[in-house]
Amino acid sequence: MRTPVLALALAGFAFGTPAIASTTIDPVGDFLPSYTGPHTGEFDVTNFSVTFDPSTSLFRIGGTLAGTINPETDGYYIIGVNTGAGAIDPFGSIGQPDVEFDKVVVVAGEGEAFIGTEDLVFSIFGNSFSVLVPLSLLPSTGADPLDYGFNLWPRTEIDTPGNLEHISDFAPNNALLKATAVPEPVTWMTMLLGFGLAGASLRFRRARPFAQQA
């Protein structure tokens, strides 16, 4: 549920968006041929970005979709992270063999974000989402944090994560995005304040069958 407190938080987030981010632009309407779900904008990535702040050991991950994220839709935004091991690569059969990961961050359109059993501070506003992920939840398996690789894929359902026909899009396509330099510290402080308010206003919980598989 979005409340006045959340609206205030989102305003803080909007003013605190980092000026520097590693970003990939994804074409509109490039749904995977294997995808069998609804071909609506909320499942079509147009922008994906990652920023890392060494001073706070936080990743800021953001995504923009072609349509408004609908909390009533069974939609999930999965961020696969390669921290060095790249041990999981299940997408060769749908033309994405270079999307490798060993950790998974989940943002649910209905109102929560998590990695494993850990809740994350996040925001959803219109057709965009943003989530803060502590480095401690993404420990290195051989790579420097600025060399971690990230990929975003929307999907329907997470109760059966191995079903690839539920995945609609990848950003970037068949590749990984690396984080970039830290923005100004005051920017992070403003953003953290906004996210903190957002986290305080969202208390929805659900079962989490999603572990490290896509």
General description of the model:
The protein has a single domain (4-201), classed as Immunoglobulin-like (Sandwich), CATH 2.60.40. It has two helices and eleven strands; from the N terminus they run αβββββββββββα. With 214 residues, it is of the alpha+beta class. Mean pLDDT is 83; it is low at 1-19 and 199-205. α1 (4-15) runs antiparallel to α2. A six-stranded antiparallel beta sheet has the order 7-6-5-4-10-11, with no helix packed on it. The longest helix is centred in the C-terminal third of the chain and has 17 residues, at 185-201.
Keywords:
single chain; 214 residues; alpha+beta; Immunoglobulin-like; six-stranded antiparallel β-sheet; five-stranded antiparallel β-sheet; 14% helix; 29% strand; globular
Briefly characterize the structure.
The chain is an alpha+beta fold. Helix content is 14%, strand content 29%.
Taken from the alpha-carbon principal axes, the silhouette is globular
The oligomeric state is single chain
**CATH hierarchy, class:** Mainly Beta
Query: What's the CATH topology label?
Result: Immunoglobulin-like
End-to-end distance, in Å?
26 Å
Beta percentage is: 25-35%
Write out the strand line-up for the largest beta sheet, numbering strands in chain order. Answer: 7-6-5-4-10-11
* Number of discrete helical segments: 2
Write the element-wise H/E pattern from the N-terminal end onward.
Answer: HEEEEEEEEEEEH
Can you give the mean pLDDT? 83
Overall number of strands: 11
Please compute the radius of gyration using only Cα atoms.
16 Å
Let me know the largest β-sheet.
Answer: 6 strands, antiparallel
Low-confidence stretches: 1-19, 199-205
> What is the count of structural domains?
1
Q: Helix coverage percent of residues? A: 10-25%
Report the structural category.
alpha+beta
Which architecture per CATH? Answer: Sandwich
